Amino acid sequence: MTTVTEQTKPPAAAASGLRLLQETARRGAVFILLAALLVLFSIAQPAFLTIGNLMSILQAVAVVAIIGAGVTVTLAIGGFDLSVGAVAASSVMAASYAMIVLDLGAGATVALVLAFGALVGAFNAFLIVRLKIPDLLATLAVMFLLTGLQLIPTAGRSISAGLVLPDGSKATGKVDAAFLLIGRSSLGGLVPLPVLLMLLAALLLHVLTEHTRTGRLLFAIGGNEVAARLAGANTARLKALAYVLSGTLASLGGIIVAARVGRGDVSSGASLLMDSVAASLIGFAVLGLRRPNVLGTAVGAVFVGVLLNGLTMLNAPYYTQDFVKGAVLVGALALTYGVSRSANA
Amino acid sequence: MALLEAHEIFRRYGSTQALAGASLVLERGEIVALMGANGAGKSTLVKILSGVERADQGTVRLNGREIAPKSPAEAARCGIVTVHQSTDVVGIPGLSVADSLLLNRYVTGKMPYFLSRSAVLRAARRVTAHAGFDLPLDRDFAELGAAERQLVAIARALSDKADVLILDEPTASLSGTECRRLYEILLSLKARGLAILLISHRTADLAAVADRVEVLRGGRNAGAFRRPLDLDAAVETMIGRSLARARPTQRADLGPPVLSLTGARLLPDRPAFDLTVHAGEVVAITGVLGAGKSRLLSALFGIGRLAGGKATLDGAPYRPTGPADAIARGVALAAEDRHRSSLMPRDWPGSSIAATISLPHLRRWYPFDLMMSGRERQEADRAIARLGIKAAGADASVWSLSGGNQQKTVLARWEVVPGRFLLLDEPFQGVDVGARHDIIATIRSHRDRATLIATSDPEEAHEVADRVFVMDQHSLHSIAPRPALAPAPAPAFLLERSAP
């Protein structure tokens, strides 16, 4: 990845101007790169820059951006939620199970699955806040737990209409058509519902983290937990809030996936954890904030989506995708840590 | 020719001129004490000599040859070794004292690659023999007390063929007997021709071992004293005013008691004590590191509990369940080490001056959660004006401030709301003399609030407080005489372990 910057070597007298230019370049680097990608791809492949294709990019990254927003909140409190991928995957299973086996309607299913996500978040918080298990280990354990748990009710089978249950009987329910609308409908035939949900989630969490006292206190815990506690903050409750939010958003991501595929696939959501964590970390570099931030996470997810979509249109083979994501992540982290360090020294 | 000669050293940190032409000369076989109030530049000078920091300007000569060590290891190779105040990082819990003594040799590869227990013990014994005192080589480093850890650090430092030994607050956490043992060791090292630079607040240390006292103030040499040492004069040079003038005027009109402790114990097996702090009164507790000052303040703020006794606040029973509860009752704590206890990291949300001040008050200032109104900025603007915080504005980062202005910001956090009882733990850490005057003035300006200050520096205690107590081994066991109208109270350092 080459950085597209318009720096020349000016005389030493213009050092402060250069400093300003460098700072602007650093803060806007992700946006400059994003714009450069859009221009490059639309020149190479005219079909790239159409409303339809741009919407399909956003639709593709919506789930990752929503889950990433939750991860971002846990990063803000100085924690980490490794269970989000597993929560999303088991939410896909839970949604299908609720409709096909329990014969629930769309509304009840959504409520049940969101509650499931919140419950997993509360369990994570219990392990981390009460039992004082380090966040990475606690959420890793819960990730394993859920990955296994989602297989048990159906004896390891994917869930679709007419599923044969472990006791030999046949499931009677079917996927509610209203439920499928969550993943398949679009506003005015233009903006897919998942994209709207992504925008809504990003906006709400952005306001929560950046413009409320709750958000200030969440960041205070991540920045200096001792200081937050000495200032009278209820750190246990705030940490629990972060993990519950993260779990709930992950289950929302799972609902969207389930509504799109229309069945409970055992292997769905395999890459969601890595992709959403990557989006959050790329978000550090967006605006040069060097810290978790919800808007950065959304932009990070979109950035990866644009890159993958464009490369696919240019006939890059599918198996290069993870390599591309990895390269973007390395570049973003270098921009966050390496470049800023040397600029501040 | 002097052994070590630092000439006109300058060093600036951001807006703070830490050193402004300080000089220092050390001869072989002498012990020189470096004195100075917090922020006078002592630690910066030591950091430059020991290779942690580099000087902006000025020269350091060792044996007449100019040196500019870039790291502590390079300084040690030149022959300058430093023993820092926190000695818990000298060794590694789980390894023996012998291993801890040889740690630097493991790194440099001066030990054989395959180690046998007896080879390690032999090598360690050579190190202690060279240093001239014994250590329990078989014990686990974690079991050692502060005094023995100090000796491990000194022995290891000496094993590097040192010419200059720098000791930073070596007696801060030692008992009286341990101090005397250290003095003997220092004197024997001096007799061997070592030059020792001692940084200490304790006038007892200086009286016992120092040949000369070099006083720094505002980053410059403010005076030098030879034996026989006139410690009064040295302290006056250090704080820049006469001792008598430095004392605050005693308040005659004390308000009602705000906090009362009766039969209080910090640890179950330590003697109980009583303490009453009145409205409008400033009480200071002084004592060595680890004496229990912070434990008392923490307990009064709801972190941890008293081991016994009763506490009342404004006449009502006071048993805070946590900081939030204490704050709700009007009790505030500005804890020791503001970076760890009060400030958000650089570039992190909440690291502005306004946000630092507002952190405990967010619930009251923003009852509807959304932080749309500029309440915290208005409050911060007022605080900046009232406390004279030198800053670009309320939105400036606390990390752009000097130590003194950072401390003012932390204090401002509790100045913006009316409080009943303010607890300050080491409020003058890394604060320059000018800011210190402002802080003292602010602390003393309240007529309706009681203030309790913990400081390990007795001079500071007397500078700020109406009454001074001494805490030793978790008990408030001696009380400074309260001179009702007497013009000359007992000198501060006599309260501290007096000269042997």
UniProtKB/TrEMBL annotation, chain A:
Its main location: membrane. The chain crosses the membrane at residues 29-51, 57-77, 84-102, 108-129, 136-156, 189-208, 240-262, 268-287, 294-311, 323-340. Keywords: Cell inner membrane, Cell membrane, Membrane, Transmembrane, Transmembrane helix, Transport. CDD domains: TM_PBP1_transp_AraH_like. It is found in: Cell membrane. Pfam families: BPD_transp_2. It is a multi-pass membrane protein. One of its GO terms (molecular function) is transmembrane transporter activity. InterPro entries: ABC_transp_permease. One of its GO terms (cellular component) is plasma membrane. This is Sugar ABC transporter permease. It comes from Xaviernesmea rhizosphaerae.
From TrEMBL, chain B:
Keywords: ATP-binding, Cell membrane, Membrane, Nucleotide-binding, Sugar transport, Translocase, Transport. This is ABC transporter ATP-binding protein. Gene3D superfamilies: P-loop containing nucleotide triphosphate hydrolases (3.40.50.300). PROSITE patterns: ABC_TRANSPORTER_2. Pfam families: ABC_tran. The keyword Cell membrane applies. One of its GO terms (molecular function) is ATP hydrolysis activity. CDD domains: ABC_Carb_Monos_I (cd03216), ABC_Carb_Monos_II (cd03215). Residues 4-243, 249-498 form the ABC transporter domain. PANTHER family: CARBOHYDRATE TRANSPORT ATP-BINDING PROTEIN MG119-RELATED, D-ALLOSE IMPORT ATP-BINDING PROTEIN ALSA-RELATED. It comes from the Bacteria.
